[in-house]
Write a structure and sequence with these properties.
The protein has 308 residues and is an alpha+beta fold. It has ten helices and eleven strands. α9 runs antiparallel to α10. It is globular and about 60 Å long. It starts with a strand and ends with a strand.
């Protein structure tokens, strides 16, 4: 096994109607994972958000994902894993997924495993079980592939990626609130009316059509009003006001970022995107919630930073 470092970026999942199936990699930072030979399995964590990441090998998404991949490949050698935790947990931007994606990407390269990004999605998703209680593949697929990803389940998770125009802007308003994925998943309804199902199918199809046509206005319209967003909105103080302020500032669409509490707006104009961010921050402030806003673009997939 070679000592290998890899990175994987933040991501926004669900995108209105695409619960557990759609995600977008966004350039809001990345986790870096190093793997290498060791006498025993071990995990260390550093970085600005290290305190939010479990340092137990059996309980961290990155090491759970590596263990799943190692077992599937019938490998037995212990591994030392180090995570540079740069993404804040509990914010809806794929923090645990970035660690899991970077981990399996690094481990596969370190052991010269001939596995595709889709193959690795299966094992990174197993890592998500440690933080979310279920092996949902949407965020890890986006972190591995980059761009926009569509996931589905056969006997194991599958994924395909679509490109996203580089000039599209995604405004992320992150309130000073932590919302764990497992808790946020708990409010999602288990049964839905057929009318909501039809609307969800149409919305998802419109998102894909918008990407194939490079139509940012259609994309923005299509990500709004998803059933899961409506169920989770009550968990985020000021959600409706932030959405309305963003629209008034020129947003083409607004949705919850994954499990929340971050809220995402879409624009094709960088200056308008800055104004949208200011408006979203003002909206949170009007309900006595501090927040940060970021104007981002689409991010690339996981990549190797170095090998020894």
């Amino acid at each position: 096994m070679k000592t290998t470092r890899a990175m994987a970026s933040t991501s926004v999942a669900n995108l209105g109607h695409g619960y557990d199936s759609l995600a977008l990699a966004v350039d809001l930072g990345a986790d870096v994972v190093s793997v290498g030979p060791a006498d025993r399995d071990m995990l260390t964590v550093s970085g600005p958000h290290a305190a939010s990441a479990p340092d137990d090998f059996a309980g961290n998404t990155a090491t759970v994902a590596i263990a799943a991949l190692r077992d599937a490949q019938n490998l037995r050698d212990p591994v030392a894993v180090h995570i540079e935790k740069n993404i804040r947990s509990g914010s809806g931007t794929g923090s645990s997924a970035a660690s899991a994606a970077a981990a399996v990407f690094a481990y596969a390269a370190a052991n010269d495993l001939p596995l595709s990004r889709e193959d690795l999605t299966r094992f990174a998703a197993e890592g998500e079980r440690a933080s979310a209680g279920t092996a949902h593949p949407d965020n890890v697929a986006a972190a591995l592939f980059g761009g926009f990803t569509i996931c589905w389940q056969d006997s194991y998770p599958r994924a395909v990626a679509l490109p996203v125009p580089q000039h599209w802007r995604f405004v992320l308003a992150r309130p000073d609130q932590v919302l764990k994925t497992e808790a946020s998943r708990g409010v999602v309804p288990k049964q839905v009316p057929i009318s909501d199902h039809v609307a969800g199918c149409a919305g998802t199809a419109r998102i894909v059509a918008a990407l194939t046509r490079n139509d940012v206005r259609m994309f923005g319209e299509a990500i709004q009003g998803g059933l899961v967003d409506r169920a989770r909105a009550g968990l985020i103080p000021g959600f409706d006001r932030v959405r309305d302020y963003a629209h008034n500032a020129g947003a083409l669409g607004v949705c919850l970022a994954g499990s929340g509490p971050t809220i995402m707006a879409v624009s094709a104009d960088a200056s308008v995107a800055e104004a949208i961010g200011n408006a979203m921050r003002d909206a949170f402030a009007s309900v006595a919630v501090n927040s940060e806003t970021f104007v981002t673009a689409v991010a690339p997939g996981a990549r190797i930073l170095g090998e020894e």
